[in-house]
Each structure stands twice: as C-alpha cells, then as structure tokens.
Design brief:
With 82 residues, the chain is mainly α. 46% of the residues lie in helices and 0% in strands. It is built from three helices and no strands. The protein has helices spanning 9-17, 47-59, 65-80.
C-alpha cells in the first residue's frame, strides 16, 4: 500500500522555497558590537530608574539607551575639565 503524502507536505515545501528572512538589527551597516571604537560596559542602577528611562526613550522615538548614556557621560566629562 502506497503511503499518502502528509497534508502539510506542500506547506513545508513552500516554506523551504521562500526567501530567507530579512536580517535583524539596525539598517545601514555595522552595529556597535563589532565596532572597535566602542566598549561594552555594565552598571547597576535601580530597576525602577531603568524602567522609567526605557519608557521615556520610547516616547522620544525609540532612542537608544546607549545614546543617552553617551550624552550624559560626555557632559559629565566636559564639566570635569573645568
């Protein structure tokens, strides 16, 4: 007796024939992780402060947390030079 093909066989075949999913990440090139001009750092801050900051960054158009940290540290370093 010949085995009947699975009703999902066509779906699987179609899925394999589709294009590969688009690359994840930010458009326009290399991210900070692979950029030798950037260092990854870790800091411990209160969870509520982190949560509030994430919400405010989203309200500002999905601004990156690392951009905020860079801005704040640059300003702090400039003040230290006085």
């Amino acid at each position: 007796m010949k085995e009947k093909p699975s009703k999902f066989a066509d779906m699987l075949r179609t899925r394999k024939d589709e294009e590969a999913p688009a690359k994840r990440g930010r458009p326009g090139g290399q991210g900070k992780r692979g950029n030798p001009d950037y260092s990854q750092v870790t800091a411990y801050i209160p969870k509520t402060l982190h949560d509030e900051t994430k919400v405010n960054l989203i309200r500002q158009g999905n601004r990156e947390f690392s951009e905020l940290v860079e801005e704040l540290l640059t300003g702090w370093n400039l003040k230290q030079g006085k």
